[in-house]
Amino acid sequence: MSLSRHLSRYAISGLLQWTLEYALVLALSQWLLPIAPANIIGRICGALLGFGLNGRWTFVGEGHTAGRRAALRFAAMWIVLTAINTTGVASVAALADLRSAQVLKPAVDLLTAGVGFLLSRHWIYRR
């Protein structure tokens, strides 16, 4: 599958995944939890959706699979990117305020999504 097709499908899947994640982070951080645990919960829910969509639709095809090995690779990537993402969001909240962290979260998400795309295409879903 071509890079443009992977990228466009990753963007569609990512938008659905991100919408779920961001909505949960906003709701949880506004009313129930500090931003860091809210971000982790949102990312867990988004990751569950994203792994399924990317493994069965975005990167489906010759040379790609969404089996156990891909799940382990995805988990390793997710842990590292979630640590980076959550540290970024929590740092903004500590230096500024909750609202700033909520507003800047999409920028942090975009950075980690770019790394996630490259790792997904070239490592996670590869056989």
Q: Main β-sheet, in a few words?
A: none
> What best-fitting shape do the alpha-carbon axes yield?
elongated
Radius of gyration: 15 Å
The sequence of SSEs as H and E is HHHH
Number of helices: 4
- Number of domain modules: 1
Beta content = under 5%
Structural class: mainly alpha
Distance from first to last alpha carbon: 14 Å
The unreliable regions are none
Mean pLDDT: 94
The helix content, as a percent range, equals: over 70%
Number of strands: 0
Structural write-up:
The chain has 127 residues and is mainly α. The chain has one domain. The chain has four helices and no strands. The radius of gyration is 15 Å and the shape is elongated. The mean pLDDT is 94.
Question: How is the secondary structure organized here?
Answer:
Blueprint lengths: L2 H29 L3 H24 L9 H28 L2 H27 L3
Helix pairs in contact: 1-2, 1-4, 2-3, 3-4
